[in-house]
Design goal:
heterodimer, A: 206 residues, alpha+beta, 31% helix, globular, B: 450 residues, mainly beta, six-stranded mixed beta sheet
């Protein structure tokens, strides 16, 4: 149980910190134009994420309320500190040398069988140091979407922490949780659920 | 006294007894002018499955002007009749032919007949079509009074294209007259619809009609929730690769707004009751914690500080407390804290409990409990009286309250893939709401529309 918390707490902030320090070369505005938020002296920096796709406006608007406010209040603009610039998940690809690891139900600690797999993954990653690593955390379909989002992230971070403990540089690693949204198996059996409770590795050349 | 003339009196007597027994409904508001008290922190559930219902006769509407190519004289009463049946406060007697206009004798004869058939109330609608706009004057009669008293009338006018909304508004007004609180027919339900590995946010009328796709991100979108003014919907989206939090404006041509795009997860939004801030889950500091985001300044306030998972905040209607989920004590449980993050106390015991949703009336919190399958439970905010609302089959989860604090929408896999269902707050009247396409999840009931 000590393992469950200890390494996660020591390393995870490093990831976040390193990502923040990576800085932010481009700052496309993602906020819709609106009056400055009341009480904010200077315009808040736009969050440095890629702008939403052009088609984010509803393709058709449902019947509006009969009496929409004649003069809509200025949309509050949410100030944000610089968010990390993360490589897009779609830039990463599977690699046959990196195997998935599996987790027990509602758990995110690294099992002994998973540790052996991660040892091999770490060896490959250290020998191929030009590759950035994306670790996806996944859950089975039981449990609610929101909780599984948190659980999936815990699994990805446990995996990352183990690899870092084996000498893989934390700065090469990004984690993402898909919760229960991307199962590899959709039958309602324990065998299938066990396959979905996984951390998956993808790489991208630096 | 002839039998014919005695019958209304007997009905009146029976009705009075029913009111006394039910204690809640069946009394037009005019008879209780102070029927809508100021909203207290906690108010009782006045419509439960066992309560007496008002039987209301709704003949086809009378065409008072213009032509009626879309047969609105039938469509409007049909839609609002369904609303009133759904409200659980009324039983509708429908399908009678329209009454002639300006004919008090015919009206009296019809009402006398409906009263004899057991109706306590009658709704007469006079519809005037003016090109692409429709006007309806609703007239509500109390059939339990000997003189069949007109107790309420009101005119509504709307584009013909929004005739369902016009119908819902009339239904809500009828509910107001008899319960002291507006009905919930003029509301929407947001949800996520899945197809081929992507999930988009959709919107439909509360009765499942008229779905509109609100996002076209070709990605995963999760957990839509409404702002208290019913104008915007916050949700988690992977549209930019990572789970960030956005909001869209449901009825305005406005671009989406990024609310939180930090490293890690940005999820589980819940607008504060005053609409000024959003409680959310961020893992930017290494671990999922509950924060509050001030929407005008962008300031973040961290509420939890724990090595465990803390997520799924849900505000009390006063804004003074927040229920949330944590696995700090083992399997996930529902906790409650003050809105400042202090005074944390555990609400649920046993099993694996997530998705707390505080009733807009304040008196109850529904949540999803896993004990084998998932089922919906309810508990008082002090942790007392946990009770099961659903008992399978399949998983029943993700409840969202209607603004009256009486109806719930939730997702169930009882028929196979997830679809949305509705029920009353005591678990009764469970019924299917959606029929695909694909799996439909994360139903979010809107506040009353402005």
């Amino acid at each position: 149980m000590a393992h469950r918390w200890g390494s996660a707490l020591s390393v995870a902030p490093l990831l976040v910190l390193s990502l923040f320090l990576a800085g932010c070369p481009k700052r496309p505005a993602t906020m819709a134009a609106s009056a400055p938020a009341p009480g904010v002296a200077t315009p808040p920096p736009a969050a440095p994420v890629a702008p939403p796709p052009a088609s984010t406006a509803p393709e058709s608007t449902p019947p509006a309320p009969a009496a929409p406010p004649a003069a809509p209040a200025p949309m509050p603009q949410v100030a944000q500190p610089a968010a990390p610039v993360l490589p897009r998940p779609s830039e990463f690809a599977d690699n046959a040398n990196l195997k998935d690891v599996y987790f027990d139900f509602d758990k995110y600690d690294i099992r002994p069988d998973a540790a052996k797999i991660l040892d091999a993954n770490a060896t490959w990653l250290k020998a191929n140091a030009r590759n950035l690593l994306l670790i996806e955390g996944h859950c089975d379909e039981r449990g609610t979407a929101e909780y599984n989002l948190a659980l999936g992230e815990r699994r990805a971070k446990s995996t990352m922490n183990y690899l870092v403990g084996q000498g893989v540089a934390a700065s090469r690693i990004t984690v993402i949780s898909y919760g229960k949204e991307r199962p590899v198996c959709t039958e309602k059996t324990e065998a299938c659920w066990a396959m979905n409770r996984r951390a998956h590795h993808l790489v991208k050349a630096q | 006294m002839s039998l014919r003339s005695a019958r209304p009196l007997l009905l009146l007597l029976a009705f009075a007894l029913a009111v006394a027994a039910g204690g809640v409904l069946s009394s037009p508001r005019q008879a209780r002018p102070q029927a809508a008290p100021p909203t207290p922190d906690v108010s009782g559930d006045v419509i439960a499955s066992g309560a007496k219902k008002v039987t209301i006769a709704i003949p086809d509407f009378t065409l008072a002007g213009g032509s009626d190519p879309h047969s609105l004289v039938k469509r409007v009463p049909e839609v609002l009749g369904n609303d009133l049946n759904f409200s659980a406060a009324f039983t509708v007697l429908a399908g009678a032919p329209a009454l002639p206009a300006n004919n008090p004798g015919a009206l009296k004869e019809a009402w006398t007949g409906f009263a004899a058939a057991g109706a306590h109330a009658a709704l007469h609608g006079l519809l005037t079509n003016r090109g692409d706009r429709a006007e309806v004057e609703m007239r509500l009669y109390d059939l339990t009074s000997a003189e069949q008293r007109l107790i309420f009338s009101k005119k509504f006018e709307m584009p013909v294209a929004q005739v369902r909304r016009l119908s819902h508004k009339i239904a809500d007004e009828v509910v107001l007259q008899y319960t002291g609180e507006l009905g919930i027919a003029d509301t929407k339900i947001a949800y996520t619809g899945a197809a081929g590995g992507i999930k988009e946010v959709y919107l439909m009328d509360y009765d499942g009609v008229g779905s509109v796709k609100m996002t076209t991100t070709q990605s995963i979108n999760l957990s839509p929730v409404w702002s208290p003014d019913a104008r915007s919907i916050a949700f988690t989206s992977y549209m930019n690769g990572y789970p960030f939090l956005y909001r869209l404006f449901a009825f305005e041509k406005r671009q989406m707004q990024l609310l939180a795009g930090y490293g890690g997860i940005n999820s589980s939004p819940a607008f504060s009751p005053d609409g000024k801030s959003v409680a959310l889950t961020l893992s930017k500091d290494g671990n999922p914690e509950v924060y509050v985001l001030n929407l005008s300044t962008g300031a973040l306030r961290r509420l939890t500080s724990n090595a465990a998972i803390d997520t799924e905040p849900s505000w009390s209607p006063t804004g003074r407390e927040i229920a949330f989920v944590s696995d700090r004590a083992g399997p996930a449980q529902v906790f409650v804290m003050d809105a400042e993050g202090t005074n944390v106390r555990r609400l649920t015991q046993g099993g694996f409990n997530t998705q707390p949703r505080w009733s807009p009336k304040g008196d109850v919190i529904v949540y999803t409990s896993r004990q084998g399958n998932h089922d919906l439970w309810a508990v008082s905010p002090d942790g007392s009286n946990p009770r099961r609302l659903t008992a399978g089959p399949g998983s029943n989860e993700g409840a969202s309250w209607a603004p009256n604090g009486r109806h719930l929408v939730f997702q169930s896999s009882r028929l196979g893939g997830f679809q949305l269902f509705t029920m009353l707050g005591d678990g009764s009247a469970q019924q299917l709401l959606t029929k695909g396409p694909g799996e439909i999840t994360s139903g979010a009931w809107s506040p009353r529309l402005p």
